[in-house]
């Protein structure tokens, strides 16, 4: 549900149509703020103040600020918060919408000045650093005090937002990755929906075979046909790109590889043989099999994938569930959702989720906690789920999201099926943003064919591990 860094497609888009909704959780390429620089700023400004931007009005009403970055979801949160304020007449909440590209820089500046939002969207790529800097309220005592049933949430989400036994956010949503496919292209080719596909690093499996059938050059020839023109392709079978969360994380896991040695670990695992094999397959889809656009087109411009799909020039793309709303708004083609192709280890999707964090220095901790509880409640999550904005973190509310999309003629259950199976954990660690910058830049060369996969993964792991080790030591 929502990063720019290197684990999601839309973070690379920057300002533009559909980009901000997509930025909800995706980290396609690095964001322009540096954690160590932020640490210095916060240390220097440590005595600048300790109160947030909230206030109390003369009539006894407490004013809270709530920060988020997705305009698509803002619609649902306005509905939720309107109901919250009706039930809590002594609390007024102002929503602050900041585009993803500016959100984290703005938040860092507010931390330094001591006036951060009372409650704000938080992401797994950033929360280790915020915990390290003591900017987040530990919610564990409040959870115990109010007997919040943490068992109602997906256990993975609770685990991801727990550090040293302390909880730093109540789960409010989740996302997985699936295949979006163009029904019109499949029907024209006389092919069934892409269900039960398989892939392997040796010969690509039925997934590669299907992608080849769906790739057409300007003369209607497929890869392998005599005279096929790889430099003039009108329709791609699939889009393989330097995209972590929506791309290679999933394929690495499905081939038996891992991303990081352990939560808050210091060793990325992209140079393992199983990981190298998966990455080689994805690069080959571009440079060997020619079923995907060139990396010259997709590197640091991941909007290309969805644009090709929406324009009818890509039969299949992998996409996070947070992209559903924007795709539905931007295309008139008939499309559907299918699970990822099963690798040697079966189907495995990246699994991510956002929480709301409470600023540790909010002047109104009691009221901020009331808002936090509401946003993670079944009432609020039902509003967001039934509106089709996001998958609710409360498992019993999943069907509200399914039913919304069913009414629009889209079966989104493949995302849910993946969430209920084995998933790929987000590589939570200090220095993630710096590490992701190194990996993104080196993998760009790898997808272009300028670096071999073994060389690229070796270099990326070495540089990324160095960034994590520096951040972990607080250096």
Whole-number mean pLDDT: 89
Name the beta content range: 5-15%
CATH class of the largest domain: Alpha Beta
The biggest beta sheet is recorded as: 6 strands, mixed
Percentage of helical residues?
A: 40-55%
CATH topology of the largest domain: D-Maltodextrin-Binding Protein, domain 2
- The CATH superfamily of the largest domain is identified as Periplasmic binding protein-like II
Give the oligomeric state of the chains in this entry, treating copies of one chain as homo and distinct chains as hetero. single chain
Count of distinct strands: 17
List the uncertain runs.
1-34, 39-52
Helix run count:
20
Structural domain count: 2
CATH architecture assignment of the largest domain: 3-Layer(aba) Sandwich
- Rounded to the nearest angstrom, the distance between the terminal CA atoms is 31 Å
How would you summarize the topology of this molecule?
Layout: H1 19-22, H2 35-44, E1 55-56, E2 62-68, H3 71-87, E3 91-97, H4 100-113, E4 119-122, H5 127-132, H6 140-145, H7 155-160, E5 162-163, E6 166-167, E7 170-171, E8 173-174, E9 177-182, H8 183-188, H9 205-213, E10 216-217, E11 233-235, H10 244-254, H11 273-287, H12 295-298, H13 303-310, E12 316-320, H14 324-330, E13 335-338, E14 349-351, E15 355-358, H15 365-375, H16 378-386, E16 391-392, H17 398-406, H18 413-419, E17 423-425, H19 432-448, H20 453-472
